[in-house]
Amino acid sequence: MVDPAGGPVQEYVEDCEVCCRPWQLTVRWDGQGQVWVEARTDDE
After folding, report:
1. Digits of tens for pLDDT over the chain (44 positions)?
2. For residue 17, is it within any domain?
3. Domain total in the chain
4. In a domain, 32, yes or no
5. How far is CA 41 from its chain centroid?
6. Residues whose CB falls within 8 Å of the CB of residue 39, separated by 6 or more in sequence, listed in order
7. Has residue 4 been placed in a domain?
8. How far apart (Å, rounded) are the C-alpha atoms in residues 2 and 22?
9. With contact defined as beta carbons under 8 Å apart, do 25 and 17 qualify?
10. Taking CA 22 as the corner, what is the angle to CA 6 and CA 19, rounded to the nearest 5 degrees?
11. Is 2 inside any structural domain?
């Protein structure tokens, strides 16, 4: 889970509900309201 109090860059790993393989989610945001989300698998 991403926590707004956790800082401007956060990462967490979650298992895919379909294939059970892990994927990593990176969330970045600035003080202006811009948000960037990147999702990738372990093999990338």
Report:
1. 677 788 899 998 989 899 899 999 999 988 788 999 999 987 76
2. yes
3. 1
4. yes
5. 11
6. 23, 24, 25, 26
7. no
8. 17
9. no
10. 140
11. no
